Amino acid sequence: MQIEEAQNIVKDSSTESLNWNEEKVELLEQSKKSNIKIESLTIEIERLTHYVKLLKEVIYGRKSERLDEEAIKQLGLLFNEAEANSENEQEELPIEETTSVKEYKRKKGRRPLPKELPREQIIYDLTEEEKQCGCGCQLSKIGEEKSEQLDYIPAKLQVIEHIRYKYACKGCEDTIRCAKLPNKPLPKAKATAGLLAHIMVSKYTDHLPLYRQTEIFKRHAIDIPRSTLCNWVNACGKLITPLIELLKKDITSSDYVASDETKVLVLDNEASNSYMWVHLSGDRERRAIIYDYQDNRKGENAEIFLKEFKGYHQTDAYSGYNGVHDREEITWVACWAHARRKYIEITKTIKVPGIAHRMVKYIGQLYKIEREALDQKLDPGKIKELREEKAKPILETIKKLLDEVKDATPPQSILGKAVGYTLNNWEGLNSYLLDGRLRIDNNDSERSIKPFAVGRKNWLFCATTKGAEASANIYSIIETCKANNINTYNYLKYLLNHIHDYSDSKELVNLLPYNIDKKLLSN
Fold first, then answer.
1. How far apart are CA 424 and CA 436, in angstroms?
2. What pTM was estimated for this model as a whole?
């Protein structure tokens, strides 16, 4: 009996020990899960705190991405572990602490009014009595005092009457002839090319919605319903479609293209968000710009547009362009402005200088090299040599820094996302070294899409797909004119007056903004 009792006691002890071990393992697993959850929530809190501070900065802070020296001293690092990991860096490029600026002297006094403006003189003279001096002598004219005022004459509307004389033969009484009427831009519209050009420039350059233009016309006692203006604009957009095809051909036949996209609300497209894609030839000389309306943001839109394109394609890191960049004949050029922006957002919300601030400094040195090339007016070959000499070592230092901090920075943190973005797109960010014509960022396409974004704040939406497509065509022409220093009103007026005179695409090429004889636009 004693042996059996002893065996039972041992058995019970083993069972208890086994249960205790299982409980211990379970508690350790729960503790591990809790620690992971705590770490995740901590990162989420830091992320949300960062966004709150960033939102306050957007509302109340400075809008520029440039940092002055005092601001940099006040900024800091978001994650200490990444900073600690980089304390022992070697062979580091010196960070410049000062920036030299050319001396600028402000001119005193008012700017003179343009000499080419028409002038009306009003003469002010003394009366005969005032010309008599108290001593009894007659005053003699010794000079004059001249001052100028700028006057405004409101826009003038006029009616152009087309009177065609008719002739008939009194002998046979069969022949009747009438003078031929010149082609109208829109055959059934009572608007001249000048009025149509004014309406389009007002909406797409000055961001004046059509309903406001209707109210302005009413002040001139002219009642033009908004629906009529819409019909005119849509008809003009359709009329210039052949020119849009020529612009597209010039873009896709070049070897350097930049692209971007932005949302547009179209009321009759309820399925998804619509987008306005922008594609432009990368070379700034004879630049063509196309706005391409699509009812979605699928990458196939860019693939279709750039189907015939071969060369360098500069964009941000949106994955929708991957189908284009996967082709062997296309080299992706990324945007350093997008990479820099992620670090600048961090520096706006932190207190102690760290990785983000150093990245802003290094990227600033890359931009300083670009400014140097611009100031010296270097040709593409010399720019490539300059970048190889000065920019490449900075890029190598940036890569070394990011490789050292990436493992010490939580991937889902704000800094981790910035570091991950830069490293994941490293090849594209270095592509601008390949050719001196390439730019360090995609700001040209962003500047081209900005007028649309500003206008969107005023007219809010497009009512129909047809209207969105017409707007895309008109924006394409207007922005191409602006890129080539062409007066948009003069060009649109001439274009609408003469587009019917050209029978095929070979002749229409001469009407493109960068091909047209500017002397024709002076009348």
1. 24
2. 0.74
User: 298-302 — which CB contacts under 8 Å span 24+ positions?
Assistant: 299/323, 299/324, 301/275, 301/277, 302/259, 302/277
511 and 419 in one domain? no
**Together in a domain, 200 and 293:** yes
Q: Which residues pair with 312 in a beta bridge?
A: 256, 331
Are 209 and 342 part of one and the same domain?
no
308 & 206 share domain = yes
- Digitized pLDDT (tens) for each residue of the chain, 523 residues in all: 556 555 555 555 555 555 666 666 677 777 777 776 776 667 667 666 655 665 655 565 565 555 444 443 433 333 333 333 333 333 444 444 444 545 555 555 678 888 888 888 999 888 888 888 888 888 888 888 888 888 888 778 888 888 888 888 888 878 888 888 888 888 888 899 999 999 999 999 998 999 999 999 998 889 999 999 999 999 999 999 999 999 999 999 999 999 998 888 887 676 567 888 999 998 888 999 999 988 888 889 999 999 999 999 999 988 889 999 999 999 999 999 999 988 888 887 776 788 889 999 999 999 999 999 999 989 999 999 999 999 999 999 999 999 988 888 887 788 888 889 999 999 999 999 999 999 999 988 888 888 877 877 776 677 778 888 899 999 999 999 999 999 999 999 999 999 988 877 778 898 999 999 888 887 6
Residues 339 and 327 in one domain: no
Distance CA(300)–CA(322), nearest Å, equals 10
Residues 420 and 393 reside in one and the same domain: yes
**241 in a structural domain:** yes
The number of folded domains in the chain is: 2
Instruction: List the domain range (segments joined by +) for residue 324.
Output: 193-333+446-523
In a domain, 62, yes or no: no
Write the CA distances from 261 to 258, 274, 283, 461, 468, integer angstroms: 11, 10, 19, 16, 14
